[in-house]
Specification:
It comes from Cannabis sativa. This is Sulfotransferase. Keywords: Transferase. This protein is α/β, with parallel strands linked by helices and 344 residues long. The chain has one domain: 3-Layer(aba) Sandwich (Rossmann fold). The chain is 45% helix and 10% strand. The chain is built from 18 helices and seven strands. A four-stranded parallel sheet has the order 5-4-6-7, with helices on both faces. The chain is globular and about 65 Å long.
Length: 344
């Protein structure tokens, strides 16, 4: 009988890159994206053992893209009647306990009795369990964020995970982290592949995948609370609108309210991160306080952005159209380059 491949077997075959700060930590390239070794067991289990149900709700994101906020919003929308009867349900748990990640050791036991089952993942779209992709009625809500802010948030978060919250100084090794980020070597990166994978899928199956931008939610939270509710099949009734339930959910899930809950000031996650580390600033444009203009320009060349740093959807549509519709001729001549490499 052939022995089942273990995580150690998988790790031994993978390309690895040393962490920019800790010599004993490595990033491993698994199915085209980068992970830490402790992620692999949960990912492999999720990919091979998870069986989706038609009413499952999956929240997907690249790390530090607004995941915590999205979890609180979706939980509040779907479970609003329960929260109304018992607000303790929402205020006594960290959002990551309310909607568990697929890598959580207790993942299956946590979601088993949920109806609908609410779960979260950082796994890129092509590597999701096939049953999630194939079940027509399960829903995926994806959130992305301006990569400049994503990087800065990730840099701060990594610092807290590695060194704790009480060092009394700003994180270090910015240049080393930045260099790896621009190469796509960060947890669940490259970010451009992650975003584009879900964006393309959302165009192909819009009834199944709702693609959101963090910046849009910040600008018009009520509009997107309603949009998420409609997409998930939990629309607000006329009575709920009259009672201003969407506005109540906005208050429940506001950054200040979540950050000031006692449960989010204490305790730690299995990764070692403190609950408080998920509530640093939540601002748009904070990257300007950390990155040089040259750094910002380099990231902008990796994924084309508009003047307000929202993703240029028409550019992505053009890329997708070229990939799926272009038919080459024998005498075609193609010039290829990375941006700012002498293309002109």
């Amino acid at each position: 009988m052939e022995r089942e491949e273990t995580v150690d077997d998988i790790v031994a075959k993978l390309e690895k890159v040393k962490h920019p700060v800790r010599d004993n930590i490595y990033y491993y390239c698994y199915q085209g994206f980068w992970v830490n070794e402790f992620h692999l067991k949960g990912i492999k289990s999720f990919q091979t053992q998870f069986v989706a149900r038609e009413d499952d709700i999956v929240l997907a994101s690249c790390p530090k893209s607004g995941t915590t906020w999205l979890k609180s919003l979706v939980f509040a929308i779907v479970k609003r009647n329960s929260i109304k009867n018992d607000s303790h349900l929402f205020t006594s748990s960290n959002p990551h306990d309310l909607i568990p990640f697929d890598m959580n050791e207790k993942f299956m036991s946590i979601i088993e009795n949920m109806k609908p089952r609410l779960m979260a993942t950082h796994i890129p779209y092509p590597s999701l369990p096939i049953s999630i992709i194939n079940y027509s009625n399960s829903k995926i809500v994806y959130i992305c964020r301006n990569p400049l802010d994503l990087f800065v948030s990730d840099w701060y978060f990594n610092h807290k995970v590695l060194f704790g919250d009480d060092l009394g100084h700003e994180p270090s090794h910015l240049e080393e982290y930045f260099d790896m980020f621009c190469k796509g070597i960060h947890v669940f990166g490259p970010f451009w592949d992650h975003i584009l994978g879900y964006w393309k899928a959302s165009l192909e199956i819009p009834h199944k995948i709702l693609f959101l931008k963090y910046e849009d939610l910040k600008k018009d939270n009520i509009f997107f609370i309603r949009k998420i509710a409609d997409f998930l099949g939990f629309p607000f009734s006329v009575e709920e609108e009259n009672q201003r339930v969407p506005q109540e959910i906005e208050k429940w899930c506001s950054f200040e309210h979540l950050r000031n809950l006692e449960v989010n000031k204490i305790g730690k996650r299995p990764s070692g991160a403190s609950n408080s580390s998920f509530f640093r600033k939540g601002e748009i444009g904070d990257w300007a306080n950390c990155l040089t203009p040259q750094m910002a320009e380099l990231i902008k060349t990796l994924i084309i952005v508009t003047k307000d740093f929202g993703f240029m959807i028409f550019v992505l549509k053009g890329m997708i159209s070229f990939q799926t519709q272009f038919v080459a001729r024998d005498d075609d001549i193609l010039l290829a380059s990375c941006p700012k490499s002498g293309t002109t």
